[in-house]
Q: What sequence folds into this?
């Protein structure tokens, strides 16, 4: 990571940590512990298993965005997606670094670099487009609650998250060339031996977008991924003994995901996610302690799934380096 990016990310991380401590302090450690313990080890294991299924769905979306790859490589793309999310959630840099980790997982398996990075941009675009649809549903849900006389001061946060999400989607759709250039620069900076031609990247992107069925399939898988992630939230609340109507959980999770997207510069959206649950959860009928407990359970899940994925990725990286030196 270049030095001029370290200070903004470090500052954003400190602000996020302060927000997380505020959210935890607002509901109290005792209430959080009680809510989390209600889930139990078996419930948490079930939640983690469901999260692995989510990674498989998102891996299928990434695989679809790289037409021509055999279906038997689905587990590879699933692992790449898990490593990508693990880097986003656990390592001290923004989501851009996670993208490079995920892409390196695929190139380390001898998939062509230009094709991998082009497919990554397509996957990002379809993922963001799916999030726009998902966030709009969340705004409809929130609006239906606010109309009935609930608090109105949180609504701007939801609109801000949705607005940033829509703007980022438009940027990814309209500015594919700069995104590809960024991917090439990052690859060159983090992977000095990587020789990725920008012209080749651009040609690969054009070729992928000509295959509209593949792009549409990637979009559908990513949209399914957003929905499944929200259903996992509903499952976690059920296991904690704080069930909420599924449509409300989907609405809440869509807005939390939008806020996380708006705070992409903060590693793991730390603090943003917790504060979002505290502010938005009660509007949709969720107790603050259950909301923050859900956020912390997600953090624990990220460690349980993300850490082994990163360790496996690093082991493969070390093996590749030894082979290249031999």
A:
């Amino acid at each position: 990571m270049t030095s001029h990016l370290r200070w903004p990310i470090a500052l954003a991380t400190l602000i996020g940590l302060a927000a997380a401590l505020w959210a935890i302090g607002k509901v109290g450690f005792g209430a959080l512990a009680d809510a989390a313990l209600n889930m139990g080890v078996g419930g948490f294991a079930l939640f983690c298993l469901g999260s692995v299924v989510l990674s498989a769905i998102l891996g299928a979306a990434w695989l679809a965005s790289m037409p021509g790859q055999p279906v038997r490589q689905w587990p590879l793309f699933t692992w790449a997606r898990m490593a990508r999310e693990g880097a986003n959630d656990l390592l001290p840099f923004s989501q851009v670094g996670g993208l490079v980790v995920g892409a390196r997982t695929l190139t380390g398996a001898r998939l062509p670099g230009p094709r991998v990075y082009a497919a990554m941009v397509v996957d990002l675009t379809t993922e963001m487009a799916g999030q726009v649809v998902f966030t709009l549903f969340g705004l409809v849900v929130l609006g239906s609650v606010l109309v009935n006389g609930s608090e109105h001061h949180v609504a701007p946060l939801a609109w801000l998250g949705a607005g940033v999400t829509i703007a980022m989607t438009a940027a990814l759709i309209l500015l594919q060339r700069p995104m590809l250039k960024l991917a090439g620069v990052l690859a060159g900076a983090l992977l000095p031996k990587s020789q990725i031609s920008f012209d080749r990247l651009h040609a690969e992107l054009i070729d992928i977008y000509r295959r509209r069925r593949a792009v549409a399939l990637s979009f559908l898988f990513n949209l399914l991924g957003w929905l499944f992630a929200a259903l996992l939230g509903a499952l976690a609340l059920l296991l904690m003994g704080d069930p909420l109507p599924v449509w409300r959980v989907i609405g809440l999770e869509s807005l939390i995901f939008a806020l996380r997207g708006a705070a992409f510069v903060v590693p793991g959206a730390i603090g943003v996610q917790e504060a979002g649950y505290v502010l938005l959860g009660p509007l949709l009928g969720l107790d603050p302690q259950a909301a923050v407990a859900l956020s912390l359970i997600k953090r624990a899940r990220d460690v349980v799934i993300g850490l082994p994925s990163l360790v496996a990725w690093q082991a493969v990286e070390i093996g590749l380096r030894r082979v290249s030196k031999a």
